[in-house]
């Protein structure tokens, strides 16, 4: 009786592909080409232009004058205001958005409330710019609907609406789109909490408080912090809403960039605007690197 030896398993891996002469199919590459062109035109080229302009002097040569000018009083004050605005709106938006996301995730997946809230959040997260600024001005601005109502009921004049056009008003308006954005980005993390983990904690004698503080919150912490960082970057880079609300002055860095590029008073300071933009690129790059690191940690248990 003769026996035949089992056939060896086919060799796999990159080395085997190279030996078999496998070549990359052009289909996926061609499919990515429009995306790569878009990234190159609207991200890489502007970034390189900003970097070159920030280190370029009036004579066209290399210079650090524009970068050194970032340490002066006006740019530093604008940076502080931008950081305060971003931190405040991100903190309020992340806390309230996380609570709203928890209320949403406790509802059945097919419930009308859950689908309605997620749909509304998807719309409001993109509701910004001049439209959002006009909505708030028509409500709480000078001569706004709520302002006139308070004036009639409480005997207040509309002089109290001046805060809307300053930093506190920007924090309130930014929070309007920060909360729904937090719901969208934090909801998958809440949905990733498996019921088996809570059942196991209960079977081991843990209370609801112990489950949340010793199991759920440590698991959700990277996702929560990563979502808060995303909200910070979103507020730090926002421009149109602040430009529509604040018509005079430049309390934050994006508006100071506008003044450097368009104002007749500081005509010829375009390279200083590039330096300010480079400052924003560095801050956002640091924030997004931290966000990617936290997202990598979250993916360990979400997958």
In short:
By secondary structure, this protein is mainly α.
- How would you spell out the order of helices and strands? HHHHHHHHHHHHH
* Largest sheet descriptor: none
Strand content: under 5%
Averaged pLDDT: 83
Q: Number of helical segments? A: 13
- Could you name the ranges where pLDDT drops below 50 across 5 or more consecutive residues? none
Content-based structural category: mainly alpha
Shape: globular
Helix content: over 70%
Radius of gyration: 26 Å
Through-space gap between termini:
51 Å
Number of beta-strand segments: 0
Q: How is the topology of this model organized?
A:
Elements: H1 14-19, H2 26-54, H3 65-68, H4 73-105, H5 112-124, H6 129-140, H7 145-154, H8 167-191, H9 195-203, H10 208-237, H11 240-245, H12 253-262, H13 270-302
Helix pairs in contact: 2-13, 4-8, 4-10, 5-8, 8-10, 9-10, 10-13, 12-13
